[in-house]
Each structure stands twice: as C-alpha cells, then as structure tokens.
Amino acid sequence: METSSQNIILCFLKRSAIIPPISIRALHYYERKNILKPAYTDPDSEYRYYSYNQSHFIALIMNCVDFGIPLKEIASVVEADDMTALKSFAEQSIETLEKKQNY
C-alpha cells in the first residue's frame, strides 16, 4: 500500500499532543487563503511543517470556524504571529459570543 505524504502528515497531526487534529484539506485551504502558511515546506516531499506557535493558531482557527467567526477576522492575528494579539483576539471573540448569547 502506497502512503502519500498527505496521509503521513495527517497521521502525525492527529497523533500530536501539540497540534490539534485537523484535515490536510483544511490546512491546504488556509494556506491558499493566506490564513496559515506552514513554517516550512520540504521541497522534495512537499511535507508541510508547522511551528509550536502555529499549533495555537490552528486551534484558534478551528474554534473560530466552530463559532461562526469569519476567518478574515483572524487572518491578521495569525499573520502577526504574536501571542499577545492572539490572547486579545480570543478575549474579544469570547465577549462578542457571550453578548450574542444574551440576546
């Protein structure tokens, strides 16, 4: 059985305690939309590697999708690669969602 590089990466991501389970298709979509670029792409195998900090952004992206927060809103936070900006964005998003629940 031939294993594609995508399957290997997906398996690694699903088993990683650091990076939340996410589909390769979703990662490719976020890459095409300039929301999340891999920290490194191996030119020979085309494996995509993500940094430890990016694991937090992957979790944030997944939560935003779950809560209906537009991806456009988080693109600048991810691009800045700033944990303080990530925390601030998360707090603001929680406030907004709580307000929506109260109405």
Strand content: under 5%
| Name of the CATH class | Mainly Alpha
Mean pLDDT: 75
- End-to-end Cα distance, whole Å, is 54 Å
Structural class: mainly alpha
CATH topology (level 3) name = Multidrug-efflux Transporter Regulator, Chain: A, Domain 2
Radius of gyration equals 15 Å
Unreliable runs: 1-17
What global shape is seen? elongated
Total of DSSP H or I helical runs spanning 4+ residues: 5
Largest beta-sheet details: 2 strands, antiparallel
Tell me about this structure.
With 103 residues, the chain is mainly alpha-helical. It has one domain (5-102): Multidrug-efflux Transporter Regulator, Chain: A, Domain 2, CATH 1.10.1660. It is 64% helix and 4% strand. It is built from 5 helices and 2 strands. The chain has helices at 5-15, 24-32, 52-67, 71-80, 83-102, and strands spanning 40-41, 48-49. The protein has a two-stranded antiparallel sheet. Strand 1 and strand 2 (48-49) form a beta hairpin. The longest helix has 20 residues, at 83-102. It is elongated and about 50 Å long. Mean pLDDT is 75; it is low at 1-17.
